[in-house]
Amino acid sequence: MTTTHQPATDLGHLLHKHPDRAQSFTTSSGVAHVFYPKATNEECTVALLLEVDPIALVRGPGSTLTQYVNDRPYAAGSLLTVALGSVFRTAMNGRSESYPELAQTPIPLVIRIPALPHKLAERLFTPLGWEVRINEHGDSRYGDVTLTGTVKLSDALKHLYVLLPVLDGGKHYWVAADEVDKLLKAGDGWLAAHPDKELITTRYLARKRPLVLSALERLAEVDEVEPEELDNALAEPKISLARQRKEAVIKALKEARAKRVLDLGCGGGALLRELITEPEFTEIHGVDVSAKALQEAARKLRLDRMPDRTRERITLRQSALTYADTELAGYDAAVLMEVVEHVDPSRLPALEHSVFAVARPATVLVTTPNVEYNALFETLPAGQMRHSDHRFEWTRAEFAQWAEGVASRRGYRVKYVGIGPEDAERGAPTQMAVFSLGDEN
Amino acid sequence: MDLKIPDLCLVVLIGASGSGKSTFARKHFLPTQVLSSDYFRGLVSDDENDQSASAAAFDVLHYVAAKRLEAGKVTVIDATNVQAPDRAKLIEVAKKANVLPVAIVLDTPTDVCLKRNASRPDRDFGAHVVKRHRAALQRSLKFLGKEGFKRVHVLHSESDVDNSVIVYERLFNDLRHETGPFDVIGDVHGCRAELEELLVELGYTLVRDAEDRSVDAIPPDNRKAVFVGDLVDRGPDTPGVLRLVMGMVGNGHALSVRGNHEEKLVRALRGHKVTVRHGLEKSLEQLAHETPEFRRAAEKFCDGLVAHYVLDDGNLVVAHAGLPERYHGRASAKVRSFALYGDTTGETDEYGLPVRLPWANDYRGSAMVLYGHVLVPEAEWINNTMCLETGVVFGGKLTALRYPEKDLVSVKAHQTWYENEWPFPPPVAERAPDVLALTDVTGLRRIETSVMGAVTIRAEQSASALEVMSRFAIDPHDLLYLPPTMAPCATSPRDDVLEHPDQAFTEYAAAGVSQVICEEKHMGSRAVLLVRREGGAIYTRTGRTFFDGALGEELLDRVRDGAKPLFDELSTDWLLLDAELMPWNAKASGLIREQYAAVGAAAVGALPVAVSALETAAGRGVDVSELLARTSQRASNAEAYRKAYERYCWPTEGLDGVRIAPFQLLAAEGQTFHDRSHLWHLETLSKLAGPLFQQTRHLVVDTADPAAGVKWWEELTAEGGEGMVVKPLQNLTGRVQPGVKVRGREYLRIIYGPDYTEPQNLQRLRKRSLGRKRGLALREYALGIEALERAARGEPLWRVHECVFGVLALESEPVDPRL
Questions:
Q1: What is d(CA A405, CA B655) in angstroms, rounded to the nearest whole number?
Q2: What mean pLDDT is reported for chain B?
Q3: Does ipTM exceed 0.85?
Q4: pTM value?
């Protein structure tokens, strides 16, 4: 950090670090060295160099990293800001006993951060009065970033303290509730007015939603506006497609008079939570291939505190639809909600056998995206699928071709239902096939 | 007196309190075989005499009895059992497990019972209890057979009790002592001429009577024919077939199980009312021309046929309609019905035939099951089972399987003897040939391997692998193998490196391996190549496909072209190769960009700036010399790191630039090669032609004098080469590591970070624990070889998949990923 305020060496007083001495401080993130490459009346540059122990990062107590090959010792992120906050704490608070006025005066500053994830740098620093220059480091997210502006030293340090981890997009430590206080304190005087305050808050708090809401509420108090207005980025549209999908599935289950229901690929239990509120579903069996998803489902369903009568209705089990699982036999209906598109096409015959031959319920509901509709999603780039794990997305004709094949091979009848706003040409965003066993009706 | 009981049965002791049941049980059975109601009352209530605990006690007792019987263990119930409803529950337990219930009644006189109870302080209940027991017992005695007990032994006196001896008898179906070799013959259905022809084809010598009728066939080489039933009906000469088979069975040249057609014929011959159809009319008509003596003999023969046989030490089961494993060697109406008719649902199909469930798809037993009954166009293996009914009577053929050779022999029908009510040959059923069941892979598993015995897979390891396997892996039909992990050599004590070949050579020398092969480690991605004459797959070490779609097909085509010489040399239709696919970035480009290149960019961006700032500061007299030295060193480490990973990346366009270095031939049809020297492997694989393939540089080293090996490694790694793998030259060698890797000093920067070579870092990194990794490497190696052997033998898919899945499951074990 360089200033041309005159006398430039006053920087040493503001930072409480003598320009002619190199000093080292042990901080929680490594050894921080402060030295001055230049200290003249005209120009003074202070350097902060953090030496990180790369082995301790992985092996040390409370280590959160698993790789020795790691950019943390080099890139400006939360490790650096922890050191910054510790070494320059007094300056960051704007206190200076010898130069109280200068501490409150904007001075010309040039800050160079030689390895910083730069994608949002211009967007976030410019509104704070910085001119941002970036030299990119090849095909990587890092750049050599120079900020030039006339800013109070304490504000400059606070900007860095908050925005470096925001640009980096991650924290090396567990983000706890006191992180909100740190943010509000360091953001005092500038964050509430920043046009990207939601983005900054969200990323600073490592995307922990309850913390984000709490921080936004408290920022809103400062601003005297309702938190909901700030929270647009997080709120869901009024009736989401997911909501409509669940409603359509439950409606179809009721029409089929299903009582004992399989949710195949239940994931975190979004559908299970709806099914359990409908007493007519007397047995609900959710399976997923991911043990982690099942834990999440159990947690969200609050299985451990469910009354016995309700608890008895629901079973969660790990299973995979590419293996024949006889435990799934004997149910009235099976739901595969947004599941088939996560299975490789070459494995679909195995899934077909598991569901339509082994489990063989009277009714099978299969929902999947209608790829024809994708063009109507403004935010979805052309040709891209809706989810990175989708192995395919079918047109209505492709879906029907698969479904007809299954129905004829397995002795089911099939009809189709569109879910979501229907487009005259492209159909509905989600398509559902309703398979029924046998020839009656 | 001898008390004969089947060698698998449920023994129900019946007798009043004080009749001496417990003493009797103790004398004749193992303590673990005897389930006493007193004991179970104690188990659930802490008081053996607490009658209020009886309901709970019997719940547990029945549960334990069921588990024991399921496991095929003789079980004795020591309770009064004087009431019919109590016995009914036990009979139910026996039936459910398909074992025979046997009653042993201790009809000890009342006064003896009373006297015994009087001597026991815990039995202070009155005489009326014993008298009530005795009365109930007397009422029960004559109904025990009717209740379902297959044998009832009554011991009337104390001396009966004292002098009795338990004699175990084999079940009729138990022919485990018959070890073959066998010729198992499918449904004959009265086709005598074809049967004679088949027997001759099998090497039997026909014996004819004065009227030139075949009355026996003498087998070659101690063989024995085994008929799967349905000898009779539909065909032109049921009496002729019976005469021949009865002769063979009578002379010990053949065995036959009962088919549903024999079942019905017996009832018809006995004058029961049966619907005469499905060819029964033919048999009855033909038998009418025979003598009454022959008819009686035929009836007796058919009636004496057993529904299934367990042969050859339990390795072979023959039943007319097949038999699931839980029924092998068991006896009950249910087992018999399955053996005769199969797993019918009670429904019929469009031709009026009973709908049968495909039990063979789910069959997981180790015994081979041979059967007939269901018409198939060709006899083929499904999970170690085979149906031999190829419809000779409908104009198809008569088929036999030689056991244990597994050779099929068949003769064509001389004509269509019986017009079918349904299409023949039957339409090839829509069968999923190798359906994998969830229970094939989940839960705690013990997999027997030829290399190191049982390998245990814990349930949570299976659970983690299930997700990876079903979400990302290729079709299990192509996933015949996953490569095992490989441990590094022991950590070097030298101060400048973490790994050095000295340790590898010392380790093998200590294990008695005199010659090792050093193979250059190609820095790419591990690839397994399954090449079939048509189709195949190229997949990663977690079973993912390398290249999707057309690119993958093209690569496979190129490999297939290159591998042509091997197909002929090994006369196989498929090959499985272990290889390294290069460059590294062909598959790992995301990882390289996100992690390796990112670190390089950040380090090379930051450190020179820091060095120049420190130099400037030093220039104006600030004392930063130590920090400057350290930082300069880090800057040059960062450069070295960047060079280290960049040398493994090169541009590829489509498949241009992609190279494959195969280093081990894993398996081919009927063959595995893990017992061949690594030199054989490298030499054989050097025949793969084309620019796609890269040779693996190698050196054979004598572990007693390994200097040349050390020098070779130094040369390989001086320029940043990844290093080498050291393996026992002779390949599979007892319980030593199948290979250890010795990685280069520069290469390890991309594993342990740019600065790992700094002395203070090396010193700490040297404390690494290899034990778990080495254990995993051995177990995964054993599972891998087991998978290959099973695949080469053509075993059912589930047997192969079990091992492959096991490797992936073990890989879920948390082990230091840098090893």
A1: 36
A2: 90
A3: no
A4: 0.80
